[in-house]
Amino acid sequence: MEHKSTEQEDCNLDVRNWRTEVIPGCCFIQFLASGTAIYGEVLQGSSEKGYFRTHSYSRLFLEGYEARTHELDFAMLLSREQFEEARRLGWPSRQLGVQSILLLPPS
């Protein structure tokens, strides 16, 4: 049997802890290959492990759309304040706009 390194075990533990935080009401950001930032809210989990029903927004879809999003697509979870700031700024995709949202102090 192969022994996992402590670093690998810590990484796996971090992934498990992060996954337990994803519940309805959570906000997230994801990035498409084109660089477009997608901001979303988790509406509910689905029957398939790791998939969530979400409502997502971007500069291309200001009113948003419902989607089925896998947790591995979430770049990171956002606070409600960060999410609302992104909405106020029109769902920015440019690096500076995204950075300004991520630099908001945690609630």
Describe this structure as you would to a colleague.
This protein is of the alpha+beta class and 107 residues long. The protein has a single domain, classed as SH3 type barrels (Roll). Helix content is 30%, strand content 28%. The chain has a 5-stranded antiparallel sheet. Strand 3 and strand 4 form a beta hairpin. Helix 2 (80-88) packs antiparallel against helix 3.
Short description:
The chain is about 30% helix and about 30% strand. It is an alpha+beta fold.
List its traits.
107 residues; five-stranded antiparallel sheet; globular; disordered N terminus; SH3 type barrels; alpha+beta
Write the layout of secondary structure elements.
Elements: H1 6-20, E1 27-31, E2 37-45, E3 51-57, E4 65-70, E5 76-78, H2 80-88, H3 95-102
Antiparallel strand pairs: 1-2, 1-5, 2-3, 3-4
- Overall mean pLDDT stands at 81
The general outline is globular
- Gyration radius (Cα, Å) is 15 Å
* Largest beta-sheet characterization: 5 strands, antiparallel
Uncertain runs are 1-5, 7-16
How does CATH name the architecture?
A: Roll
- SSE arrangement, N to C: HEEEEEHH
Strand content: 25-35%
Question: Can you identify the CATH class?
Answer: Mainly Beta
Looking across the biggest beta sheet, what order are the strands in?
Answer: 4-3-2-1-5
Q: What is the CATH topology descriptor?
A: SH3 type barrels
Number of helices: 3
Please state the structural category. Answer: alpha+beta
